[in-house]
User: Fold this.
Amino acid sequence: MNTHERYVIRIALVAALGGLLFGFDTAVISGTTEWLQQVYHLSDAALGFTVACALIGTIIGAIAVGVPADRIGRRDMLIGIAVLYFISAIGTALPWNWQSFLFFRFVGGLAVGGASVVSPMYIAEISPAEKRGRLVALAQFNIVFGILLAFASNYFITRMNLGTSEWRWMYGVEAIPAAAFFALLFFNPRSPRWLTSKGRHDEAQAVMNRLVADPVARDKELAEIRASLDLEHHSARESIFSRPYLMPLFLACAIAVFNQASGINALLYYAPKIFKLTGAAGESALLQSVLIGVVNLIFTMVALTVIDRFGRRKLMLVGSVGYIISLGTAAAVFFVNGENFSAMGGTMLLGALMVFIASHAFGQGAVIWVFVSEIFPNRVRARGLALASFSLWIANAIIAQAFPIMLGALGGGLVFAVFAGFMVVQLVWVIAFMPETKGIPLEGIQKQMHID
Assistant:
């Protein structure tokens, strides 16, 4: 590995810390839902809103981040996002009432929404085509690692018997990686594609000199970046809803909605609650959540090693089939056991959910942020990614709000059967519409999509 490759990996890892905080912030609430209900006397509907309020911030953060990411740049936007993560961590650890807790969760949501757009976009724009899948997937790896850290942190804090302050510590520990993320970003360069879009060609050249070892390949890539921007014939403010961009917009928004229609975040937010329905005690339910996080991490690592060899489409096909089998099994277990789970029923549900999380990690989880960061042209990438992320978080907020209500009213069997049905539709979409983008330069994908 040469100096240039090491440099690319280092700055990609720093940018991917936005994903680690994304994952931690998303999953940490799973260990605090009972405390929140007890401390603030919340109904199931109020608990659903408490979880979903962060997602309202995430939706706003995702849709709002595109314009400032184009204006001030990807790196500087990530620095602002790090500040929001830090404020949210301290604020949710030390709220003075339920309303203040909701506000700071909302601030954390703004950071998650922004990071879901800017982290993969920045990594895609600094990565060589042949390694882009693995490098962008580092953001997903860190999301998964952040989820596992949240589950593990919640478990170990519970073991410390801190009493009524337990839930505060669960939120407060996020301040440490948020501060590290903020400090390390100042050592990362600005995106050469963003610099080129601003006419700062000398700075773009200097960054490319550090990213690409081969002078011929470097000059060719810079020329292709300039051609893809082509601002003499296309306005930098051209509408994302213009005819040439409708197909990438459809592909990005579809994969984003399918991502949430699997029920993945419902599982992450409410894992202990789901396991308690099977008779698992509080500490045991949290430990089972850690197991889910470990499986998620392992299969994300497996996907990361093969995504640039097998391609995005094959991983989605395998993951879709795994979703259907595992969600169908989980639904069947709930239908058979009802409200009185046997030990065998609890074990079968845990096994089905482990297969489900493995299918997600190997398919949708590894592919989504790679795919959506690739298929938009340079001149509209930030806005396209923002709309895709907006679609994802809208679906997420709806499911997070509805899940505890549906679980109580309909039962786990019907809820998991609905998720399985959505994944059948996803499988059809992958077969019929999803293109393969592995190994193609970003500017080449633009040509493949027949965009001038």
Remarks:
- The chain is about 80% helix and 0% strand.
